Amino acid sequence: MLTEIRDLIVERKIISLYNLSLYFNVDERAMEKMVDLWIKKGKIKKTETEESSFSNKCKGCTNKTCYSKMVFYEPN
């Protein structure tokens, strides 16, 4: 699975942690740990952004100004 994760990131050029987790049907925390192996090897890089966007808010949230951290991966 680790090789498949790396290959998908390379193929897509950039992918969010959320979408990567959905694609492989794996919990986001577990996916982060798997991708961390590729980051340590220098094959993948991680980008984190703070988003203040109504479309990116958490499920069930009614606060239109809440912040959610967006995590993306791309080939290094």
Roughly what fraction of the amino acids lie in strands? Answer: 15-25%
CATH class: Mainly Alpha
Radius of gyration, in angstroms, nearest whole number: 13 Å
Order of strands, widest sheet: 1-3-2
Largest sheet: 3 strands, antiparallel
- Cα shape: globular
The span between the termini is 19 Å
Query: Structural class of the secondary structure composition?
Result: alpha+beta
The CATH architecture name reads: Orthogonal Bundle
Number of domains: 1
Order of helices and strands: HEHHEE
CATH fold-level label: Arc Repressor Mutant, subunit A
Total number of beta strands: 3
Count up the helices. Answer: 3
The residue ranges in which pLDDT falls below 50 over 5 or more consecutive positions are 52-57
Provide the residue-averaged pLDDT: 83
Query: Approximately how much helix is present in the residues?
Result: 40-55%
Write a short abstract of this structure.
The protein has 76 residues and is α+β, with helices and mostly antiparallel strands.
Layout of helices and strands, plus pairs?
Elements: H1 2-12, E1 15-16, H2 17-24, H3 28-40, E2 44-51, E3 68-75
Antiparallel strand pairs: 1-3, 2-3
Descriptive report:
The chain has 76 residues and is α+β, with helices and mostly antiparallel strands. It has one domain (2-75): Arc Repressor Mutant, subunit A, CATH 1.10.10. The protein has 3 helices and 3 strands. It has a 3-stranded antiparallel sheet. The longest helix has 13 residues, at 28-40.
